[in-house]
Automatic annotation (TrEMBL):
Spans traversing the lipid bilayer: 20-39, 51-67, 73-93
CC terms in the record's Gene Ontology section: type II protein secretion system complex
An example Gene Ontology biological process: protein secretion by the type II secretion system
Keywords annotated in UniProt: Membrane, Transmembrane, Transmembrane helix
Species assigned in the record: Guptibacillus hwajinpoensis
Name of the featured protein: Helix-hairpin-helix domain-containing protein
Length: 238
């Protein structure tokens, strides 16, 4: 049985994933509605743009409906439409965890809505200045808040991923509040990270993001009781 993505549980997550049906059950005719819907719920520009992109094949299909079925334009349009439909299905499954985490954050802290908007804008700008993205690659591996690096370097503070609090993780450059909470949640589920690679794989971080934050993080060994601690009672001489 798969683990919950958020702290609210499976039922809440399933109830807030109904939007995926627009992409899954409409054969591509209304898949773009899924992206417009979640973009409006958590104020994500990238998902609004995705919605417009996925609406283009449908518009082309309508525009070319009067063209003969034997014409090459019809074949190309249908091919684009089918490919777009398949990609949109993959896309909604990939962005579902990020959407649920953002929605939970907004519902839990409604007073922080404006602050979250600024964090999202920061992430959007940092993403646009980095390497180009494939349409289906909309995961949360980039930072939400850019924390001043100088303050961390001055204190020469390296955060232990197996002991840090959410607040401590948010002070790490290129590591935002939402992902700090996710890291702590994953750590509790796993009983601690076994290595830095275990952490990056669990968080689905891109290599260049993992390298950026690596100097500020460390993973301590999971504590195991020593043989002396396991031994109880006393030795009786006969």
């Amino acid at each position: 049985m798969s683990k919950s993505i958020t702290s609210k549980g499976k039922i809440w997550e399933l109830g807030n994933s109904i939007w995926m049906l627009w992409a899954l059950l409409t054969l591509g005719f209304l898949n773009y509605i899924s992206f417009f819907y979640i973009a409006s719920r958590v104020k994500q520009k990238k998902w609004t743009k995705a919605g417009f992109i996925y609406s283009v094949p449908f518009i082309l299909l309508i525009v070319t409906s009067g063209v003969s079925n034997d014409h090459w334009i019809t074949d190309v349009t249908v091919a684009i439409y089918l490919i777009s439909y398949i990609i949109s299905i993959i896309h909604v499954f990939k962005i579902r965890p990020e959407y649920l985490l953002r929605l939970q954050e907004i519902q839990k802290n409604p007073d922080r809505y404006e602050s979250l908007k600024k964090e999202i804008q920061t992430e959007y700008h940092s993403n646009s200045s980095s390497e180009p993205k494939v349409l289906s690659n909309v995961r949360q591996e980039t930072s939400i808040v850019e924390t001043p690096i100088a303050s961390v370097e001055e204190n020469n503070k390296i955060i232990d991923l197996n002991r840090a609090t959410v607040h401590e993780l948010t002070e790490v450059p290129h590591f935002g509040g939402i992902f700090a909470k996710k890291a702590v949640m994953l750590r509790e589920e796993k009983g601690g990270f076994s290595s830095y690679n275990d952490f990056t794989e669990s968080m689905n971080l891109k290599p260049h993001i993992a390298e950026k934050i690596r100097p500020y993080l460390k993973v301590s060994n999971k504590e195991r009781p020593s043989k002396e601690e396991k031994t109880t009672g006393r030795i009786v001489d006969y």
